[in-house]
Amino acid sequence: MLKAAGVVVALLAALGPGTGGAQELAGNSGMEAGQPGGPPEGWVHNSYGELAASLARDTQVFHSGSAALRLECQVFRGGAAQAYLPVPPVKEGETYTLSAWVRAESMSAPVQLGIRDLGPPYHFYLSTMALVTDHWRPIVAIAKADADGGSVGVFINFAGVGKLWADDLSFMAGDHPIEAAGEPPPVVKGNRVQNSGFELGMAGWTMPEMVAIEQGGASGRCAHWLNKGAYMLEGRPVALKPAQQYTFSASLRSPEAGTKVRLSLCEVGGGDSPGQEFALSPDWQRHSFVFIAQPHQFLGSV
Ligand SMILES: [Ca+2]
Q1: Mean pLDDT of all residues in 82-109
Q2: Which residues surround ligand 1, an ion (CB under 5 A)?
Q3: Distance from the CA of 71 to the center of ligand 1, in angstroms?
Q4: What is the distance in A from the centroid of ligand 1 to the CA of 33?
Q5: What predicted TM-score, i.e. pTM, was given to this entire model?
Q6: d(CA 38, ligand 1 centre) in Å
Q7: CATH topology match: 3-17+186-299 vs 44-173
Q8: Nearest 5°: CA angle at 143, between 140 and 144?
Q9: Which of 42, 88, 100, 279 has the most CB atoms within 10 Å of its CB?
């Protein structure tokens, strides 16, 4: 699934928070344990509605090790193909990271991954939805549980026909960004920022009253801050893929050497995400930083 984030060029800003330790709360997370012909050990087939579905431990298609979970729906008229794995209770207000690598075939329905009651009222404490293709990709929910949940499980489901594989599941307390290791998506060149050279004036950028467009700059035109306060110049939202590496760069200068400027991505409706502060010089210089897009950066925009 794609994320929407705003490109932000800010004069001065605070730095983001760090992350804590980790303990895996989901058993058989690699789907390696299980009897031949049966589901991965611990997993329960829980499909419901008018459909024909099956749950299996697949030893032919997997993300790592030698097996993955396969949830398949051949006939669908309503309900959902669903499987769950019981996990320890969740506490209200505590942040959790739930993730899995998923792959699909012949499937157009989105996949839901979340922590839910095993029985009524079937409340989801945290969850995320994603469109899944035939390429392995991580799907992640990072959120605070909105209530105490004593009898819960990791649920994965989709409402339609198709085959879904899941592997390398993880459920941990805390906020744990995805690692860049594994199978990062291939690099795709191209600028994601609209009107990045200000050739269309302030089109697509906010804060026009504090900025003037001038001829010249590093190439053609540039934006000129008229006010030295801590104002942000914010671009149009861009779509980012989780686990993809991006480079954010801009040509910057300031008549007063040492002026601090922060380049950052900002979740739409959320706070600052990856970013870096730069001290400018009187001459035009290219400033850049590299980051891995994190899944929780798109959750707020879904
Ligand atoms: Ca595996």
Answers
A1: 95
A2: 30-31, 62, 65, 167
A3: 14
A4: 9
A5: 0.60
A6: 15
A7: yes
A8: 150
A9: 100
Domain ranges of the chain: 3-17+186-299, 44-173
Q: State the distance from the centre of ligand 1 to the C-alpha of 62, rounded, in angstroms.
A: 6
Q: Find the mean pLDDT for residues 94-104.
A: 94
Q: Which CATH number fits domain 44-173: 2.60.120.260, 3.30.160.620, 2.30.30.520, 3.10.450.50?
A: 2.60.120.260
Say how far apart CA 149 and CA 128 lie, in whole Å. Answer: 18
| Residue 181 contacts residue 138 (beta carbons within 8 Å) | no
**19: number of Cβ within 10 Å:** 11
Those residues whose C-beta lies under 8 Å from the C-beta of residue 236, and which sit 6 or more positions away, are 6, 7, 193, 194, 195, 204, 205
Using CA of residue 243, residue 112, residue 29, residue 167, what is the dihedral sign? negative
Q: Output the CA 45–ligand 1 centroid distance in Å.
A: 18
Rounded average pLDDT over 259-279:
78
Q: How far is the CA of 28 from the centre of ligand 1 (A)?
A: 9
pLDDT higher than threshold 50 for residue 32:
yes
Query: Among 148-162, 190-204, 215-229, where is mean pLDDT lowest?
Result: 215-229
3-17+186-299 folds as Jelly Rolls (2.60.120)
- pLDDT value at residue 76: 96
**Per-residue confidence at 99, pLDDT binned at 50, 70, 90?**
very high
pLDDT of residue 298: 41
Query: What is the Å distance from ligand 1's center to 295 Cα?
Result: 21
DSSP class of 11: S
Q: How many A from CA of 161 to the centre of ligand 1?
A: 23
